[in-house]
Amino acid sequence: MGSVGAKEIPELLNAEGRRIDGRRLDELRPISMKVGPLTRADGSAFVEWGENKVMAAVYGPREVHPRHLMQTSKAIIQCRYNMAAFSVDERKRPGQDRRSQEISKVITEAFESVVFTEEFPKTSIDIYIEVLQANAGTRCAGLVAASLALADAGIPMADLVASVAVGKVAGRIALDLKKEEDNFGEADMPLALVPQSGRLVLIQMEGHMNRDEIREALDLGTKGCREIYERMRQALRTRYEVPAGAPAPEAMA
Amino acid sequence: MSEAVSAEIQTTHIIDLARTGHRLDGRGVDEWRPVTVEPGFVKSADGSAMVHIGNTAVLCGVKLEIAKPYPDTPNAGVLTTNAELIALSSPTFEPGPPQPEAIELSRVVDRSIRAAETIDLTKLCITPSEKCWTCYVDIHCLDHSGNLIDAAQLAALGALTHSTVPAKRFGVGDRDYPLEVSHFPIECTFVRLGDKIVADPTFEEETAGQGRLTVATDEAGNVVAMQKGKIGAFSPDEVIETIERSFRHGDRLRNLVRGN
Q1: Would you call A182 helix, strand, or coil by DSSP?
Q2: Percent of chain A scored above 70 by pLDDT?
Q3: Cβ atoms of residues B211 and B232 within 8 Å
Q4: Residue B249 in 3-state DSSP?
């Protein structure tokens, strides 16, 4: 990890077992999710997670561009994860760097594992994830936002996809790393879970963990995903709940 | 019969076979194709290795050049890994800017080498903030018959293991000396075929695969990198089992690279 040339390593875990921001090892950062903030998109969501701010929009199923990507038996999913130039400390050159392209690929594949793409042949479901402010875990926040946006767009899928990163910080397995923990920790493992099936559709990992630590991390990570999942369901309920005595549903549009 | 239809029939066949524990080429689910590592294949490189896994062929060349350290790592050299899926290696690859598949391949190989601290980058520093070695690891896929990730990673490690630092040629030392390799990460890739998870997938098995999982392990019992790819999913128990299998294969392949 980023230890080469590091100037000062902050104390990541204090004597009381609290992390740099006061969290316990198994504690998530504060999260808020808003479904449907954008008017032009078919579905959208805004997720604030710790110091991350991520917006996602879904368009489609719609015509495929470029046309040669069209598949006759199913819809294709095209996901573009992008970081705003101002989202990180040092200005990021705009556009798709290799990291963004890799993340777009693995997120696309995660969603292709749950969306019923065969219901919309010859179409494209386009997912745009814009990271507006970044503080580690942006691909997880992006996945969560995109998952909510897909639901908001009414795209049929097996389940929502919930996501969180686990890692190793000061020798201990910790949930939902923030930037300092990601930079100076020993390992980082972003996961995405399909809660109903208990299966993982995104697994990445970098750093050092032995067998037992991986086991513990997978356990903590899936628990974290389930916690996120509950928040996601709540966010969708908040968006779509019809208050008692409200006008008929068609007036809600 | 169109290619899509024949691929569909073959996919069904491969998955049916896997259910009974068999594979198209007669291997067991955990069995690899024959692996060969041939160091020093290209004399113009400072290190190189040709790797075959069955019909899959990947060549890696290492070149070292003098550069200036990055401002945020004044005491370290630079390691850059790049993999190209050249059009020569498959009818489906086209010339042009790298596609997501090539970018993922580069980054997954790079991740294992970097995370395992294969090369101690501080040893590539010549004069802090002024002069360092940049180590370019360039991977050329020659025949894509499946499991490019493992072949590419093995080629990269093989080339680094047999590389020379050209100090004399660049006038920063009296003699060239071997590049020091501190750790030996090995990447192992698996694909799901129905309820089976098979090691070292062929091209046909990758096409039929319902999710791909790559695990990089080092010689000290650590997992150093992982990547799930393609459409599909794995349970946490399956991930743990796959890691155990990666440790076993890793030990064998590591010996092959180190020439033990």
Answers
A1: helix
A2: 95
A3: yes
A4: helix
CATH number of the domain at A141, please: 3.30.230.70
Contact A200 B233 (CB under 8 A): yes
A11 touches chain B (CB under 8 A): no
CB of B61 within 8 A of CB of B42? yes
A178, A50 in Cβ contact below 8 A? Answer: yes
Residues of chain A positioned with their CB less than 8 A from the CB of B222: 208-210
Q: Which of A183, A200, A201, A219 to mutate to test the interface with B (most CBs of B within 10 A)?
A: A200
Domain that holds residue B236: 3-258
> What percentage of chain A exceeds 90 in pLDDT?
84
A115, β-bridge pairs: A157
Give the residue ranges of chain B where pLDDT is below 50.
1
Query: What's the gap between Cα B94 and its chain centre?
Result: 21
Q: Give B235's contacts in chain A (Cβ within 8 Å).
A: 198-200
Q: What angle do CA B78, B38, B205 make, to 5 degrees?
A: 90
Q: Which of A4, A201, A209 to mutate to test the interface with B (most CBs of B within 10 A)?
A: A4
Q: What is the mean pLDDT of residues A157-171?
A: 97
Q: What is the pLDDT of residue A1?
A: 41
| Domain-located, residue A22 | no
Q: A163 has which bridge partners?
A: A192
Global pTM reads 0.86
Residue A26 belongs to some domain of the structure: no
Tell me the per-residue pLDDT of A135-154, one tens digit each, with 9 for 90 and over. Answer: 999 999 999 999 999 999 99
Q: What is the pLDDT of residues B144-186, one digit of tens each?
A: 999 999 999 999 999 999 999 999 999 999 999 999 999 999 9
- A251 within domain boundaries: no
